[in-house]
Amino acid sequence: MSTTALDIPAVRARFAALDRGLAFFDGPGGTQCPDEVIDAISRYLRDDNANIGAPYETSVRTAELVDRAHETAGRFLGCSPGETAFGQSMTALNFLLSRAFARTLAEGDEIVVTALDHDANVAPWLELAHDLGVVVHVGALTPHLELDYEDLEAKVSDRTRVLAFPVAANSVGTAPDVRRLAALAHAVGALAWADAVHYAPHGPIDVAAWDVDVLICSPYKFFGPHMGLAFGKRELLESWRPYKVRPAANEPVGHRFELGTSQHELLAGFVAAVEYMESLGWDAMLGHERALGERFLAGLPDAVELYGLRGMDGRVPTFCFNVPGHGSEEVAIFLAEHQIAVWHGDYYAVETMKHLGLADGAVRAGIVHYNTEDEVDRLLEGLAEVA
Questions:
Q1: Which of 111, 259, 372, 381 is the most buried (most CB within 10 A)?
Q2: Inter-residue contact 346 to 263 (CB < 8 Å)
Q3: What sign has the CA pseudo-torsion 139, 103, 99, 108?
């Protein structure tokens, strides 16, 4: 792997949104879009806006865009284009896919989720437990907020139908061993059901190498528009009866799970977002992210209570913390007044906050490749002032 350095001024010049005093550490809630993504969306609406299936030029170009978006999705996820599906959001797609899968479930079947999961990969299974009488188990965490694999192994059994897990935790940044989790699921004949929403801007996805059965993510977390993207193994998707209108095509198989007319302008933005990341390269982006993460951890005031791993190994640069004596909302408001954007609360990581006993949640700061050393220093100075 090369050691290409990221040209931060050149990167930031591609984002009009960054041309202000606000330091964006809110990437876990949604990243900013480079101008080429915004331009692709507006260009489609201006020049090609149409529905597919007609012989005139804008409809033909829209059909070509739909194909290009699926080809780009296949390249991004490491699968065939036909195994991909776009939707309103990751949450909407996960409810849709889990409902189709639920046709194969019976009372007493078991689902295992983890205490690191975003609720979008927990609530669908809890609703199936309510409707069908399936049993949901929650895998425990270690003191450093990594998955407790021994506990997971004890909870997975021949009754398990799905092991659902995050590729990276949107709360504390932990990045579990995906191949190990997939192998654990497959050893008992269960599906490996991965939530890559938070991981997607922080590393390459390869569903084939990971051997996951289903993976869901959200382009707005990796510099694209608000929408959802899913992968499902072809043989798996072919085995499910989808919820769809009768005339909708059954091939490519992923199209069975795309309800109604696609958000064509957002597909144009998605393609531009992936091409933007490809223009930079993972090596350069991740090297810069890791250096900023190490800078944050090294400079964190002693008074700040960090939850999770203290180093950059086994994690992405997303940090969950509190300042004793100050509520998470209070800290977030103070930082916002100093032009620093962070989140507070539970960020839908319900099980994680339950595990930590944090009824009011915590502060969350997330670093992505367009952040700078100066911004990290400003964040640290702000926390030191609060503390």
A1: 111
A2: no
A3: negative
Per-residue pLDDT, 4: 76
Q: Which domains does the chain have, with CATH numbers?
A: 8-32+281-386 (3.90.1150.10), 40-276 (3.40.640.10)
Taking residues 90-116, report their average pLDDT: 97
Q: Phi-psi category of 211—alpha, beta or left, where left has phi over 0 and alpha has psi -120 to 50? A: left
Would you state the pLDDT for residue 81?
A: 98
pLDDT tops 60 at residue 335? yes
Q: What is the DSSP string of 39-57?
A: HHHHHHHHHT---SS-SSH
Q: How many helices (H) and strands (E) does the chain have?
A: 14, 13
With CA atoms as reference, report the closest residue to 116 among 94, 95, 139: 139
**CB 52 within 8 Å of CB 59:** yes
Q: Are 117 and 108 in contact (CB under 8 A)?
A: no
Identify the DSSP state of 158: T
Helix or strand or coil: residue 326?
strand
Q: Give the integer Cα–Cα distance in Å for 209 and 212.
A: 8
From 124, 59, 62, 113, select the one nearest 89 (Cα to Cα).
124
In degrees to the nearest 10, what's the CA dihedral of 56, 219, 81, 160?
Answer: -140
Counting every residue written for the chain, the total comes to 387
Question: β-strand 343-345 against 84-87: which pairing, if any?
Answer: unpaired
| β-pair partners for 366 | 26, 318
Tell how far CA 362 is from the center of its chain. 20
- In the DSSP assignment, the letter for residue 327 is -
Q: What is the DSSP letter of 302?
A: T
CA pair distance 336, 205, nearest whole angstrom: 33
What's the pTM value of the predicted model, to 2 decimals?
Answer: 0.96
- Span 185-196, average pLDDT: 98
